[in-house]
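This week, look over our next protein:
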Amino acid sequence: MTLVDMKQNKNYQISKISTNDNILRERLVSLGICEGAEASLLEKSLDRSTIAIISNNTRIALRTSEAREVIVKEL
């Protein structure tokens, strides 16, 4: 399951960042998206091209292509 597959009103834990793109990995980590962090879905855009999540009390908007690189598990 990835960030894109999350449902609202549920909590998830980030278990892995599966990208080989080091720049994207560093960007995600700098935003607080790292292994072990908790995340929740806030909303998805109407065309589902972006999602908004909250992680470590920070609201973060990601492209769907970026969110697919982050593996989560439901808590």
Remarks:
- The chain is about 15% helix and 40% strand.
- The longest strand covers residues 38-44.
- The beta strands are 12-17, 38-44, 50-55, 58-63, 70-74.
